[in-house]
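Exam review. A common question shows you a sequence with its structure tokens and asks you to describe the fold in words. Practice with the pair below. Do the first one on your own.
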Amino acid sequence: MADAHRPARRRYVERFTLTERLLHWVHATAFFVLLGSGLVLYLPSLSVAIGRRPLLKDIHFWTGISWAGAILLITALGNRRALARSIREIDLFDRDDRRFITGKTHSPQGRFNAGQKINAILTAAFATLFFISGLLLWYGEKNTSFRLPGTVYLHDTLMYLSLIIVSGHLYLALIHPSTRHALRGMTRGTVREDWAHTHHPKWATQEAQPNRAPLLPTHKARTLR
């Protein structure tokens, strides 16, 4: 009788591999270090209050270099198959994704919803532009031939846009009741199965399917045609 009153055990499904989580947290950590040091360098009041501007410039620059190196290292040594799968999923926008973007948020979604796909694409694009413009600004102080017009404006504009995007991302991950469970997927790798079916039914249904038989090797498949 005691077992009848025991709550059902929650089931979890893997959403992100260790490699995907490492990439996320390396990028997030570097972003906030770069944001903090960049704001001190950008705002005169903070720069005067904190001082040590040359040290902050070194922290800002070498954090960017370390970020790029860590991303390349994790990609090279990590689970490249999982990363390739994520890239394919993010790159695909089907009819349900387009409906989601237009405000029909109850449209069934895969492992990434349309908003998360757009966020990932913008994050990758902004990171690339940040890195290139940052290098040009750094080289421009040493060699004036690298002082291209608009580089400072681009770097600053990216900062403002990133602040808006990250603020929305943090709200959904930490505050919004229906989406903050997603943070577990990026910390522990798994999410509740019922949550996955509610928010990402396409992916959850696919994960629930029994393992399919392996495909025949190419040379055998040809003989069966």
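Now try the second one, then compare your answer with the model answer below.
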Amino acid sequence: MTIEPIVYVVDDDQAMVESLSWVIESVGLKAKTYIRAQDFLEQHNPLQPGCLLLDVRMPGMSGPELQSKLSAIGSPCLPIIFISGHGDVPLAVRVMKAGAVDFLTKPFNDQVLLESINKALRLDKLNREKQQESAQAEAKFALLSHREVQVLQGIVAGKQNKVISAELKISLKTVEAHRASVMKKMGVKSVPELVKLVLTNSVQESVQES
């Protein structure tokens, strides 16, 4: 079951909050609003898909401060679109370097806003899919025996079976058996697929550490 994404709006200007909420909901998206960054942070559920429209300057916790706190929580971090009444270029550069998707200066066109939101939602979906794939790869890797991990290390390093056999001081047939077991447990049918699975997921770190 797919969880419907939420577009969160955090802005201390109530009129702006209502206006943004109307635009978002006019295209069938779900909006949830806050006038204090602290309120959003206290209620935030990292498992909920969506994106965040965040004002830069607010009483109490500012937008960039909230961005920093969300980043500290870890992934998946909601994609953030900053909105500001001031064309502060240095600040825009800083928050974009910190991972923001966009920096919009008020007043902005509704279409520009919606395009930015759609981009952020696509990014969030992609990030969550990657995280799920990585978690699945880690779970499969955990099924491997110590010897199978050693053989996997050799495969990823591009070594032939006979080289792995010599290095591990085991027979060629044993290497082949472990190799077949690794392929089965990792759920792949070819060496390129196995290498891609390892190198494109966090499991690569586990392989290197083992």
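Model answer, second protein: Strands lie at 6-10, 30-34, 50-55, 80-84, 102-105. The CA atoms of residues 81 and 102 lie 5 Å apart. Full marks require stating both points clearly.
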